[in-house]
What we know:
transferase
Amino acid sequence: DSMDGKHARRTQSSTPLGELFDHGLDSWATSIFVLSFFSVCSCDNGKTGVSVYTMYIYLSIVLFNFMCSHWEKYNTGVLFLPWGYDISQVVLIAAYLLTGTVGVEVWQKPFLFGYYITDVLVILLIGFSLFLSFPQTLYNIHRAHLKKTLKNDSLYEGLVPLVSPLLLFLLLTVWVVLSPSNILAKQPRLFLWMVGVAFSNVICKVIICQMSSTRPELFHWFLFPLALVVYAAISGLLGCMEETVLGVFTALVTAAHVHYGVCVGRQLSEHLNIYIFSLKKRIQE
């Protein structure tokens, strides 16, 4: 994950398109990492392992940390990534190796003083977020304010990128809590996939705004159909169709995200006069 930037600088091919590819794909891959971890240590008997609700909280915290890093860059112009991102990938590799060696039972037995390994990981994640990552973000923004290097002078402009992500998680959490059919328990992977894709599209637009020094839209368009779906679900209008609607909505959101990425990639490559997957320069016509 850290080698692509070094390779781009070595080949003198660093561009905004490369930054978007790197961080845009990271914003999507982050949720996939959580999904894979969920598949390793999820509950098998309803008593041990990680529950779907714990995993939803876990995913929300991970995405919140990712969002904060790019919100910080939107305001300061500097992307500060703590070592936690690299450490998390090492932890995932260790978890896969441990599971492959010992078996999934390792996640379903108490590790120390009655606590499971997953309990320790969740506590570390929450502690890292609340006491290290988020405070570091606020400190960096405050320091930029003192140095008068903030890119946005007003508090309102600085907080605009947070509106859509926070509303997104608010709507999703309402759906999780008030779903008549307990949608998260019935379709955990599909729901978590949808959460990751929707978040990725929202944050990609913030990344583009920070690169182009433009203001992001206050309300992402995903919020409007999602609000309708959530209302129809929690009010009982969907009935037994809730899972089907989730599948359709997830497919549409995924297709829209891929379409957005392809279109932006093409536009940037033409604007910068480069190829997307090649170091060769375009021939001027």
